[in-house]
Specification:
This protein has four helices and no strands. By secondary structure, the chain is mostly helical. Helix 1 packs across helix 2 and helix 1 crosses helix 4. The longest helix is centred in the last third of the chain and has 17 residues. The termini are far apart. The model has no long low-confidence stretch (mean pLDDT 93).
Amino acid sequence: MTYEEYLDEVTTLIAELYDVNDADAIKMVVKAQADEFFVKHDDFEAMRTQERALLDAKTIYKQSKRKAPKR
């Protein structure tokens, strides 16, 4: 899949797996992208698989929860 399709897939998986609304899932993926999480994915097409998207969705979601401000 293309890089853009891969990002869309990761976003969709976050929304579906963790019951996150689309806007928040998009923010998580955009933040991960800004933090250069996807640099290798852009360079290596072989990394853009469904299995990897699932692993990345889990990782991004978990990282977003660790960095969330505590109330």
